[in-house]
Amino acid sequence: MSATPTAPVDRSPRVHWYECRETWRFLARRFVPVFALLNLAWETVQLPLYTIFTTGSAREIAFAVVHCTIGDVLIGTTALALALIVTRAGPVARWRFIAVAAVATALGAGYTVLSEWLNVAILRSWGYSELMPVLPGVGTGLAPLAQWLVLPGLVLAIALRLQSRAGLGR
Question: For the chain, what is the largest distance between any 2 Cα atoms, rounded to a whole number of angstroms?
Answer without folding.
Answer: 83
